[in-house]
Amino acid sequence: MLISNAYAQAAGAADPSGGLMGLLPLLLMFAVLYFVMIRPQMKRAKEHKGMVEALAKGDEVIFAGVIGRITSVGDTYCEVEVADNVTLKIQKLAVANVLPKGTLKSI
Question: In 67-101, which positions are buried (b, 16+ CB within 10 angstroms) versus exposed (e)?
């Protein structure tokens, strides 16, 4: 009648490089993600681990917004003097930064 029949066409020849070209954007995105996000994060973690392992008695540190001087260092914990006769026992991993010597006197 008024509507004609629709028939499927035969499939064309498959492009042999189509599979590789289809994966290229995915591989490119992973490479960009690695260099922009993953690699810098691993570098920061490595630097922080080295800083934590190098903590010693007398170092001036900042942790959770609190500044103090390390009085003793253990395997996983260290004691930090934040005021006269006030010491806190904290995890070594909580130390955010080691300050230059003399910072506490200048504050």
Answer: ebbbeeeeeeebbbeeeeeeebebebeebeebbee
Kindly report the pTM of this predicted structure: 0.72
Structure tokens at 11: 């499939």
| Tokens encoding 61 | 């540190």
Q: What is the pLDDT of residues 28-51, one digit of tens each?
A: 999 999 999 999 999 999 999 999
- Other Cβ atoms closer than 10 A to 66: 13
State both tokens at 51. 């800083």
**What would the two tokens of residue 32 be?**
């960009």
Question: Which H or E run includes 78?
Answer: strand 77-83
> What is residue 2's three-state secondary structure?
coil
Q: Which two tokens stand for residue 71?
A: 């009085």
Bridge partner residues of 88 (DSSP):
80
CA dist., res. 63 & res. 78, Å (int)? 12
